[in-house]
Amino acid sequence: MTMPIDSLLSDIQDTNLSYLLLVQRLLNEDRATAMFRLKLDEAMADLLASLSVKQLSQLARSNQLLCRLCFDEPEQLTRLIEDPRDQGLGQIHAALLMASSSQRQGASPVRMNRR
Fold it and tell me: What fold is seen in the domain 1-68?
C-alpha cells in the first residue's frame, strides 16, 4: 500500500524540482515577465534566482507542491476551456484573466521591460 504513496511523493518532488528550475530560468531570461507570470515580488525573485542547485534540491524534496494553480475561481478556468476562441486569442485571454486575478488579490503590478 505504500507504493502508490511513495510514487506520488516522488512525482511531487520531481515536479517541484522541475518547477524551481523553470522559475530560475524564467528569471534569468526575462526577469520582469517572469515576476509578472509567477506573481513574485522583487525580494522573492532575488531569493529564488540566487539559490544553488543544492538548495533547490532541498526545497524540492518537500512533500507539498511548491506551485499552485493561479486561478482561484472555477469560473476563470471554465471560461478558458469552454471558450471557442482560437489558440492565440486563448493565450491572451488567459494572461488577462491571470492579471486580473493578481490585481484583485492586491499584488503589486510589475512593469514590463522588453529587451
Answer: Flagellar transcriptional activator fold (1.10.4000)
